[in-house]
Design goal:
Layout: H1 2-37, H2 41-53, E1 55-56, H3 58-66, H4 78-90, E2 96-100, E3 104-108
Antiparallel strand pairs: 1-3, 2-3
């Protein structure tokens, strides 16, 4: 019984390590794309959100990008400017960022589907 418990614990530790490594690979993939697109650190955060979620709204973006600022961050309209800049940077590689009034934005991959 002790041997089984030890093996289960070892298996749980390995599964957690795999999860951590997969998260790191995803982060590195995002950074590689950011370099390819020429994204700023803020644009990289926005890009990563779109890739992971597919669709994001203004409040989610604002919280992720500016939520840790003591001054509350810039005006919410800044998100529109960021999105415009991101669109221009990713479009040459076939990605599109579509807006949906009242719902936010969605990433469309070069294959034509949601990313």
């Amino acid at each position: 019984m002790k041997e089984i418990a030890r093996l289960r614990d070892a298996c749980d530790e390995k599964e957690e390590r795999i999860r951590q490594l997969e998260a790191e690979i995803t982060r590195l993939d995002d950074m590689a794309e950011a370099m390819r697109f020429g994204l700023t650190p803020t644009e990289l955060k926005l890009w990563a959100m779109l890739k992971r979620r597919g669709r994001v709204d203004r409040q989610a973006i604002y919280t992720v990008i500016y939520g840790d600022r003591a001054d509350g961050g810039p005006k919410p309209k800044t998100i529109d400017v960021l999105m415009c800049k991101l669109r221009h940077k990713v479009q040459p590689l076939g990605y599109q960022v579509e807006s949906s009034y009242g719902h936010g934005w969605r990433l469309v991959s070069p294959k034509g589907g949601a990313a």
